[in-house]
Design a protein that fits this description.
heterodimer, A: mainly beta, four-stranded antiparallel beta sheet, 6% helix, B: alpha/beta, two-stranded antiparallel sheet, 17 helices, disordered N terminus
Chain lengths: 347, 422
């Protein structure tokens, strides 16, 4: 099998007929700080891409030769602004996956005064339920001053030339809602109001948008795959897509929160494609992979890399995977469906 | 071809840039561990001002590459991108320090650090890196790395020096930039602003580096490393007399034996004899310690000069008279026995830039009545004027070179003595 860890899935795809499409936004929109964790979806015949724009630029010396004075992995935001602020930029793409329109989503009517330093809706997944367009991510700026976070549905409309947030629906955790932070729930695109909250064991949650409550509708009892290397938690990634015969598929991520030789924080992300059967039993998962490869810390020998995929879509016989690189860059990987599923099977 | 991209009217990008980005990205992905290809991709993002992604790629290049030059350029790229994002000076500084530590004998990182420290107002660090860079032998501009050249380092040196001490040395550096360097357009206004703000230095010295531009060369000038006068008075006298040796002088208001002194050079390098007068006991004491010629501690307005000249057996023709007594200069001139003694050169202080011109014209009347000709009127210490002295000569005593006769009403001293910069 191809070296998916060091060369990455994109290298694999490009050698077999895939293509890579860099997404760039004008500096007038971003101030040149990070754009990442994009989510792609088809809505009313248009290819939409939400891009998370942040007020920082990640400094990540993966190879550890040039760490920042505070460590190899640092969020570099303005020196007079301690917040970690997220904006969401909605883009429309043409068939060549080029941006033809990009605009920051206007959330001002529903924004409240932040109570914590992480501001905005983070890592939004874009999807459509019952004809309504949603962005679903985690919000941590309104619950307390300690970073409590909850998933939130943000309903979007394009009104008079402006992308606007028209409604906001906080999503509590099922049960007593006592957890500190909920994030990375994955919307099931063909099952309105359903999310995969946890992947392994799988927990499927249904949200009642009218009552603002959630209930667990499916819970797998045991973690699977540990004997085949599935020892980390599989965390949420893209939307969950149906792939026929009642099965569903998505991309997940795994994270190793590591330290460098001086004990300073660092991180390493892996991805997989996973497939559930019609009963939400995890029936298949690929080997872990990176999109653009990794580097090794020469001291510890450990790998480092930060990537994150929050959206994918099937389009004209291709699979388009949207992923962020190092919190700083946004890319679309286009793979013919046949190539993609061959990879899933073989991976 | 330029096409409009996105909704922002102002955002116009060369379509070739975008195509190029995709091509370079693909090239990198197919050879992912090749640092040159990562660097090329970083440059593409940098060029289209997507700084965040460029930072990641420059860092990756620096991490992967073994080529010191490529690492150096990448670290500077990181700094450039963070700098464009504003308010991240600490990080910009860190990347540039990495670059400077990697190749301390290259000027670019030092220069860019100076620019960061200017924003941070960390003037001692700014001065350190300006001086480190100026100490490098071959300083060559580097457009790719944003280093315009040596003169920009000199600007930061001046700015830092002034900002640390607010003393004359900083002013002097700015003066040198304006009047001794051919300034590029981007520095011209900055230097002028600095000089407007700081004002000109108290002293405008002649130094050996001015030799090539000096208009009135004379024998012996080549051995002068630096003169002592505030504004070239000693050089004026020596030029008028073509480097005369063993001349004579009367110096009224001598002050310090060397600092701002108009006769120290004449005495020490050209063997002139003469009498100096000052009313400060302390300065006269210092004078006696430092100089061989005579100094008299007295009120210059109370001296009987005729007696003085006779007592010291001075000839009726004296080569140089300095009258530098602020408001009292005219009173001293009025006491001079001009009917019995002639002076080849007279430098007369009237301070008309701060006083009225009454004393200037009173002196002019007296001197012209005695045959003196004003060679350089309204000698000023600032490019905008500030006249404070007139310099006279007596045609019976000195055959002053014709080119030394000023044609302007007001004469900024440095322009008077120096050929324009080529």
């Amino acid at each position: 099998m191809h070296d998916l860890r060091h060369h990455g899935l994109v290298h694999y795809a490009l050698k077999r007929g895939g293509s890579i499409h860099p997404i760039t936004l004008p500096k007038e929109l971003t101030g040149e700080t990070g754009i990442m964790n994009p989510s792609i979806f088809l809505h009313e015949g248009r290819i939409l891409l939400n891009v998370r724009h942040v007020n920082y630029t990640l400094y990540h010396s993966e190879g550890k030769h040039w760490p920042h004075v505070w460590g190899p992995l640092q969020y570099i935001h303005p020196e007079n602004d301690i917040t970690l602020t997220t904006y969401n930029v909605m883009c429309e793409l043409n068939g060549d996956l080029e941006i033809i329109h990009a605009q920051r989503i206007d959330t001002t009517e529903l924004d409240t005064k932040p109570t914590w330093n992480f501001i905005g809706l983070e890592d939004g997944r874009l999807f459509n339920w019952e004809g309504r367009l949603f962005l679903c991510g985690v919000r941590r700026d309104c619950y307390d001053d300690k970073g409590r976070g909850r998933m939130e549905l943000q309903e979007l409309e394009y009104i008079e030339g402006q992308w606007k947030e028209v409604a906001r629906f906080p999503i509590p955790a099922p049960g007593d809602d006592a957890t500190y932070c909920e994030k990375n729930w994955m919307p099931v695109v063909d099952m309105p109001w359903h999310f995969v909250k946890w992947t392994n064991p799988t927990e499927l949650v249904k949200f009642d948008i009218d009552k603002g409550t959630t209930e667990t509708v499916h819970l797998t009892e045991e973690k699977v795959g540990t004997e085949r290397g599935l020892w980390r938690d599989l965390r949420g990634g893209t939307q969950v897509h149906p792939i026929g015969e009642g099965r569903h598929m998505c991309l997940t991520h795994e994270v190793d929160l590591k330290k460098d030789a001086f004990g300073r924080k660092d991180g390493h992300y892996n991805h997989r494609v996973i497939v559930w059967d019609k009963d939400w039993k995890l029936e298949h998962f690929t080997k872990d992979f990176h999109f653009l490869g990794t580097q090794k810390d020469p001291t510890t020998g450990l790998e480092y890399n930060i990537e994150f995929a929050t959206g994918m879509v099937f389009l004209d016989g291709n699979v388009i995977i949207a992923f962020g690189y190092q919190d700083n860059g946004t890319f679309l990987l286009k793979m013919p469906e046949e190539l993609f599923f061959d990879f899933v099977r073989r991976g | 071809m330029k096409i409009k991209r996105y909704i922002t009217e102002s955002d116009v990008v060369d379509v070739n840039d975008k195509k190029n980005l995709q091509d370079v990205l693909t090239t990198h992905i197919m050879d992912p561990k090749n640092p040159v290809k990562i660097y090329n991709l970083a440059q593409c993002y940098d060029k289209i001002e997507n700084g965040a992604m460029a930072v990641s790629l420059y860092l990756k290049t620096a991490d992967i590459s073994k080529d010191t030059n490529l690492q150096y350029k990448s670290l500077i790229g990181i700094a450039r991108c963070y700098d464009r994002q504003r308010d991240r000076n600490f990080t910009t500084e860190g990347a540039l320090l990495d670059a400077a530590a990697l190749m301390p004998k290259r000027p670019e990182a030092h220069y860019l650090l100076c620019a960061v420290y200017e924003k941070m107002k960390k003037w001692k660090s700014c001065l350190l890196h300006a001086n480190l860079a100026l100490d490098i032998e071959d300083i060559v501009p580097n457009e790719e790395l944003g280093f315009p050249g040596k003169i920009d380092l000199e600007y930061f040196q001046a700015l830092a020096k002034w900002s640390i001490t607010a003393q004359q040395d900083g002013k002097q550096l700015f003066f040198n930039l304006k009047h001794k360097r051919k300034l590029p357009e981007h520095l011209r206004e900055k230097v002028q602003l600095a000089l407007d703000w700081n004002f000109y230095p108290d002293i405008i010295p002649y130094t050996q580096e001015d030799f090539e531009r000096y208009k009135f060369l004379f024998p012996g000038i080549e051995k002068i490393h630096v003169n002592h006068s505030k504004h070239f008075q000693d050089m004026f006298v020596l030029s008028a007399y073509r480097g005369k040796k063993n001349g004579s002088y009367l110096e009224i208001g001598s002050g310090d034996p060397h600092v701002h002194n108009n006769t120290a050079l004449l005495e020490e390098e050209f063997g002139w004899k003469g009498i100096s007068v000052d009313n400060s006991e302390a300065l006269c004491y210092e004078f006696r310690q430092a100089r061989n010629n005579t100094v008299i501690c007295a009120d210059a307005t109370e001296i009987n000069y005729e007696d003085l000249f006779y007592k010291h057996c001075m000839d009726p023709i004296i080569d140089y008279l300095q009258i530098d007594c602020d408001e009292l200069s005219i009173s001293v001139l009025e006491k001079m026995p001009l009917d019995k003694f002639k002076f080849g050169i007279i430098t007369f202080e009237h301070d008309s830039y701060r006083l009225s011109t009454d004393k200037k014209y009173a002196a002019k009347k007296i001197l012209e009545e005695h045959g003196y000709v004003c060679a350089v009127p309204n000698v000023g210490f600032h490019a905008d004027g500030y006249p404070y002295e007139d310099w006279y000569y007596h045609p019976d005593v000195v055959d002053i070179p014709k080119e030394m006769l000023a044609t302007k009403d007001t004469n900024f001293v440095f322009d008077y003595f120096m050929e324009p910069l080529k």
